[in-house]
Amino acid sequence: MATNKKSNGVHVLTIPFPAGGHILPHMDLIHQLLRRGLTVTIVVTPKVLHYLNPLLSLHPSTSVDTLVLPFPTGSSSAIPPGVEIMQDVSLAPHFIRSLGELFDPLVQWFQTHPSPPVAILSDMLLSPWVNSLASSLNIQNLSFSVLNPSAMFPWMSRYLKTTNGSDDDSFTGIHRGIATSWGLIFNSCTEFDGDKMNMIKDEFFQHDRLWAIGPLLPIKPNGTERGGPGSIPQQQIIAWLDSFHVDKSVVYVGFGTQIFLSKRQMEALALALEDSGVPFIWAINDTLKGDQEDGQHGDDRNMVPPGFEEKVRGKGLVIKGWTPQLAILEHRAVGSYLTHCGWNSALEGLLGEVLLLVWPMQVDHFDNAKLLADDLGVAIRVCKGLNTVPDATKLAQILSHSVSMDQPERARAMKLKETALAAIQNGGSSDKALDCLVQHLSGLSAGTIINKY
């Protein structure tokens, strides 16, 4: 558990949650903190360590360090042996309980460190036990939310306003942990949903330490992959996209790391892509087949229909495993993105100037779709529901029309991108919020807790 000697910057311990949609924006946040002079120690288990490589390649070892601890194996038999990264959302409570066993090793590390951290910055899912850890160490814990305020507010209302909610319910415990954290950080900006952040502050917090510091720009190091290996090298994917001379003519389809489509859904989507006549890239997560908890569906999930890849060769590209999504969405040839509407993916689509075609499936996806399609008017609804089988003919028509340039949603999305980029520029709302966050952390180093902005 030894770590390198720290620099003179304010020292913060960060604990990300081991899932792609959580740990990647967490690394982007750490990058911004490091750029502002903080010193950070990142807690990971061995099989999560590779996610840190892009960040570590950009910063000297004097400012960022890793604390690699063995993944606890005693508390949850539901997690298969050797698994340390969550790919199935239904296992989240088991991962939270397992990672809670890092409590004592972290106390030991803290007590023996020559310059221990002044605060902990943890993923929101870990807040129940990390709040207790911080309290025992007499420091503060800040929660980092991968949900935007528009998605967070109804969830907090649901779990904290019900009379029968108790900490025995994992989601109630999580949201109560978030509400009792010393601070809360959002990967969003006030221009998107600042009203909801104010509602969260007024109804669930007794302080003003809430910061919207997004959209966090993804780290782009040279020569270091952001995620993992895929079936097609990134250079080959970009070369394939380069072959299309018409801008915004390619559809990208991707549902993240935790969505697995049934056989009927895969067949309908494949037929729609084929009948649409548009060139496409289809990213398919093949790391897990089905829900390991209920044992249903098994190998039927995320299986490409037989013969499909041969039929669309030259017109479509099917990528299995990790996909360089950011590079794809930023390519001039890509014009639309069929997405589950996870917040990270939605932000990447907006910043990549593609038209969002949203198929919300679970958890925060529905709130994100409401924000983007209904409130902001920058996305088109295609389908909804984890088990819904889309009409292939209608979906083909939507895909075909999505690469044209005459949709009002596309024009509004361009303006929203400008708004988002302005927020993170020097003097923008998110830039100021990030500076304020760092000032609060610097105040802690002097033993002063700042209660107001």
Automatic annotation (TrEMBL):
The keyword Membrane does not apply. Coiled coil: none annotated. Pfam families: UDPGT. The keyword Mitochondrion does not apply. Keywords: Glycosyltransferase, Transferase. SUPFAM superfamilies: UDP-Glycosyltransferase/glycogen phosphorylase. Signal peptide: none annotated. Belongs to the UDP-glycosyltransferase family. This is Uncharacterized protein.
